[in-house]
Write a structure and sequence with these properties.
This protein has twelve helices and ten strands. The protein is of the alpha+beta class and 356 residues long. The two termini are 40 Å apart.
Length: 356
């Protein structure tokens, strides 16, 4: 991909104008159009030279001979990362509509998420995707350490939904000196179990591996390594997200767009949305690679063939800082990114606040 820092200020301006014009018209962009409609303060010839340089860099291309230019996936990527700002006005508007139209008190969560998806697709004009909350969000109700002999301890965990699971671990450092005195070992493990229940009850199991135990109670310092190992085992077991159903809305919205005029393409996307959601789900629930809250996959950045001509924008919604689901928008790469990104981020923020 072309490095944005290599673009001159004028080239960045021309790229910005080309992307904006193409998003608005769906027609290849010429230098005369940019000169007439954007205050670039340069001649059409200068704009044409700039567009030629951007084409050589792989940021624009000509769909056919003698046509104007169209942004490539790389061109959209630089536009999204460097040249645009999400719409604060639209973010406030979707937050207002969600507060006014969704009722967490009288409706089921499924109905609330379905309503949020409908609002999102109506405002964006694209397909909205909202995953149902994770089922792997169990919280610790009770924990018991049981001696098993041969240097082993069975950790029995009961969740808030009364599901039971167990882990077999090596005997705790600091306890092993007790030796073969089973009664004393049981007493020691009971004291440790009580301590852990007091500290951990009510916490999500997925959060346990990230807890900071640097200031552990002095009486239990000798077990710190064992506790750290135990919590990591419990937490790691619940880090892998589990597929949940996706609420889909707005398919009819995108059928009016020229990018979806071919029946075969529409059919492959509908098949993915209706029958192969488990393939799409990891892309929607993915954590952004950068520090940004929103994850943006443009065109060929999508690994699934049916949506390699689309852009997928998503953001996770959380419950008490724990990711439990995602909000997404799927549309053409010729997308109004300022609006779509703002809508996704604001909807995810609203759901996080409401669920927490």
């Amino acid at each position: 991909m072309f490095v944005q820092s290599k673009l001159t200020a004028r080239q960045q301006q021309i790229l910005w104008a080309t992307v904006r014009h193409y998003i608005a018209t769906a027609e290849p962009v010429g230098s005369k159009s940019l000169a007439q409609e954007y205050n670039l303060n340069v001649s059409p010839a200068t704009i044409r030279n700039g567009m030629g340089a951007l084409e050589k860099a792989g940021l624009l291309y000509q769909p056919y001979t003698s046509a104007g230019r169209v942004p490539s996936d790389s061109g959209y990527r630089i536009y999204v990362d460097r040249l645009m700002t999400p719409s604060d006005t639209l973010a406030k508007e979707v937050a207002r509509l969600l507060r006014e139209q969704l009722n967490f008190d009288s409706c089921s969560l499924e109905a609330v998420l379905r309503g949020a998806a409908q609002i999102l697709s109506t405002l964006s004009g694209y397909i909205s995707l909202i995953t149902m909350p994770q089922t792997k969000t169990e919280r610790l109700q009770h924990l018991q350490l049981v001696p098993m002999g041969s240097g082993k301890i069975m950790v029995v965990v009961v969740t808030h939904t009364y599901q039971t699971q167990s882990i077999l671990m090596e005997i705790a450092p600091g306890v092993e000196d007790i030796g073969d005195d089973t009664e004393i070992l049981e007493q020691e493990l009971q004291i440790l179990s009580n301590f852990l229940n007091h500290q951990l009850r009510g916490l999500a199991l997925a959060e346990l591996s990230t807890l900071d135990w640097t200031e552990i109670d002095q009486d239990f310092q000798q077990y710190s390594n064992f506790i750290e190992q135990l919590l990591k085992s419990l937490g790691d077991r619940h880090q892998t997200p589990e597929y949940t159903r996706i609420q889909v809305s707005g398919v009819s919205e995108v059928l009016r767009l020229p990018e979806f005029s071919q029946l075969q393409q529409v059919q492959t996307i509908l098949h993915l949305l209706e029958d192969e959601q488990e393939q799409l789900w990891p892309l929607i629930f993915a954590t952004p690679e950068s520090s940004q809250q929103v994850n943006i996959r443009i065109g060929s950045e999508n690994p699934l063939e049916p949506i390699r001509s689309c852009t997928l924008i998503s953001a996770q919604y959380r419950q008490n800082s724990q990711p439990i689901g995602s909000v997404g928008i799927l549309g053409p790469t010729r997308m109004v990114y300022e609006n779509a990104i703002a809508l996704v981020e604001a909807t995810a923020n609203y759901l996080s606040e409401a669920l927490s």
